[in-house]
Design a protein that fits this description.
The chain has three domains: about 190 residues, Uridine Diphospho-n-acetylenolpyruvylglucosamine Reductase, domain 2, CATH 3.30.43.10; about 110 residues, Uridine Diphospho-n-acetylenolpyruvylglucosamine Reductase, domain 3, CATH 3.30.465; about 220 residues, Vanillyl-alcohol Oxidase, Chain A, domain 3, CATH 3.40.462.20. It has about 525 residues and is α+β, with helices and mostly antiparallel strands. It has 17 helices and 18 strands. The structure holds flavin-adenine dinucleotide. Flavin-adenine dinucleotide binds next to strand 3, helix 6 and strand 10. The site of flavin-adenine dinucleotide has 35 residues, from strand 3, helix 6 and strand 10.
Length: about 525
């Protein structure tokens, strides 16, 4: 079986590679060196054949995995060049060369795409590393922040907190602002303030002609709509975001309870009842009820970011009254920055928060695969049984995260931004951390079983920030009612070879040249080309 899929993979690679085959990247190197300052770092990896025999430049042995936080070999191609842009002018110049010479360009900001898509999805592309465009300016008078696209969440949390502000984003401090915000950006403050993309006021971006454009509610209005929620890698390369900041919570409280697997079904049912029937939405949006389920235990956490502690206490009492007696409970409270830092290092203790969020240069890489589904009704009892059975057969590390998606998110009109999932109650992230290569395939299959056990109760939609290359019908899954509108955005420069539509796989490519993309296009029924290698 493996061999059959390897053959399919190799055959497909060969076709793709041959379509994109070039005698060399000499013209590209010539163009870049004529337009970019000599101080700009450019790497031509030796792993790309076209770089190996050039007399014009020296290729470099470069470990491409360093550019992605996802370990595990999901990146199966090598770029022609990686350019370390220092400012938007550099981005413009790279794009000019790419358009002139028909190269595909991909931006890499934090490198945290779940599938490594900041490295693109095709051979001999150009990767622009945006990491150094990472400035952070806070305007405390109007409560806005202006950020270079390569800034990471940790430094933004740290800097904004100095002014009692924060951003309503995810907690992992190493995630890059650009990919995160363009795809939505969901976090513990989302019930209170919506998604990060809901607070984007303006963007500066480079289009396929190499022009620096301003995108806001009066300029490039379709792009302003699309770039708030449709994901990175589409239409333009964003170089700067202006974001409405939110007040940082004065305190973050958390109460968590833990049960062993014998209570799994009851706890899962009661958790869902609380979300659907006890009308958590009637509680304030300061409350968040998360549940983690694994084959060894379950944990429900109530987070509270308000100051009316009565509300928090009532919810805790209700949780304890409705659920079987937990094996363990835990309560803690901390200031917002310490709370955020815990995602960086669980045992913050006496650690210096500045070091954790701002100064630490090395960040971890992850070996995981994730799938995700939204729900607008509780999972039925028979499917909960199937889910629990599947869970019990796990032979590796895994966790299923149940996270609410209601609150302020659903008060915003669905047509306001490209993010279409405004009426769902919760989402589940199904995650495994393969511990060894040999068992990876088996664990992937197991993940699929767990996912399928509760698939039919879901809305069958998912969140682009949790992108999964194995999803068929991805346009519908990620974009739902906005497919057509996104499809119609033709941000094509006059006379350009770029086909101007959304690329063939979300987050796959910024703009493509007239090189035909092998077997993809807009047929929703197609699964991304390399999916077979990593699944089944
Ligand atoms: C450990 C971890 C925790 C996470 N937690 C959360 C969470 O709590 N909430 C949440 O919503 N998401 C979360 N995510 C998902 C994360 O938001 C997305 O993977 C996001 O796309 C990462 O952005 P990035 O800039 O780091 O990634 P990259 O890999 O650099 O980019 C992601 C995509 O955006 C494109 N892109 C990058 N920069 C630009 C740019 N300047 N202009 C245009 N396109 C660009 C890339 O080409 C790629 O297609 C998490 C991911 C990880 C790995």
């Amino acid at each position: 079986m493996v061999n059959i899929f390897l053959i399919i993979f190799i055959a497909r690679c060969y076709r793709t590679n041959s379509t994109l085959a070039r005698n060399g990247n000499d013209d590209l190197q010539k163009c870049l060196s004529s337009l970019l300052p000599s101080s700009i770092r450019t790497i031509y990896p030796c792993s790309t054949l076209a770089n190996q025999h050039s007399s014009q430049y020296q290729c470099e042995h470069f470990n491409i995995d360093q550019l992605s936080c996802i370990r595990g070999g999901r990146i199966s191609h090598f770029p022609a060049v990686i350019v370390y842009a220092m400012n938007s002018n550099d981005v413009q110049n790279v794009v000019r060369c790419a358009t002139k010479l028909n190269y595909i360009v991909n931006a890499r900001s934090g490198g945290h795409s779940y599938e490594g898509y900041s490295l693109g999805s095709t051979y001999n592309n150009i990767v622009i590393n945006m990491e150094s465009i990472n400035y952070i300016h806070i305007n405390q008078h109007d409560g806005t922040g202006t950020f270079g696209a390569g800034a990471r969440l940790g430094p933004i949390y740290y800097r904004t907190y100095q002014y009692n502000y924060t951003i309503n984003a995810g907690r992992c401090p190493w995630v890059g602002l650009a990919g995160h915000a363009l795809g939505g950006g969901h976090g513990v403050l989302s019930r209170l303030h919506g998604l990060l993309s809901d607070n984007i006021l303006e963007m500066k971006a480079v289009n396929a002609q190499g022009e620096l454009i301003t995108i806001n509610k009066t300029h490039e209005t379709e792009l302003y709509w699309a770039l708030r929620g449709a994901g990175g890698g589409l239409f333009v390369i964003v170089t700067e975001f202006k974001i409405r900041l939110v007040k940082s919570p004065s305190i973050a409280r958390r109460f968590s309870s833990l049960w062993y697997p014998n209570a799994t079904k009851l706890v899962m049912q009661r958790y869902q009842s609380m979300l659907f029937h006890y009308k958590i939405p009637n509680f304030s949006n300061n409350l968040v009820l998360e549940m983690l389920v694994s084959n060894t235990h379950l944990e429900i956490s109530i987070f509270y970011f308000g100051i009316e502690f009565e509300e928090f206490n009532k919810t805790v009492s209700m949780l304890l009254a409705k659920l079987p007696t937990p094996r363990r409970t835990h309560f803690d409270e901390q200031d917002w920055l310490t709370f955020v830092s815990k995602a960086a290092e669980y045992d913050v203790g006496s650690r210096d928060l500045q070091w954790l969020l701002l100064d630490r240069l090395a960040y971890p890489t992850f070996d995981f695969k994730s799938k995700h589904l939204f729900y607008d009704r509780p999972i039925s009892s028979p499917n909960l049984d199937k889910f629990i059975d599947a869970l019990a057969s796990s032979n590796g590390q895994s966790v299923m995260m149940f996270v609410p998606w209601d609150g302020h998110i659903s008060t915003i009109s669905v047509n306001e931004t490209a993010f279409p999932h405004r009426h769902f109650k919760f989402g589940i992230q199904f995650m495994i951390y393969p511990n060894n290569k040999q068992h990876e395939k088996q664990q992937m299959n197991w993940l699929k079983q767990v996912y399928l056990s509760v698939y039919n109760d879901s809305t069958k939609h998912s969140f682009i920030n949790y992108i999964d290359r194995d999803v068929p019908n991805w346009m519908n899954v990620y974009y739902h009612i906005h497919q057509k509108r996104l499809h119609n955005i033709q941000h094509i420069p006059q006379g350009s070879a770029w086909d101007g539509t959304i690329p063939s796989h979300p987050m796959g490519q910024f703009f493509s040249s007239n090189i035909p993309w092998d077997g993809m296009g807009w047929d929703e029924s197609l699964v991304p080309w390399d999916s077979h290698l990593f699944f089944f």
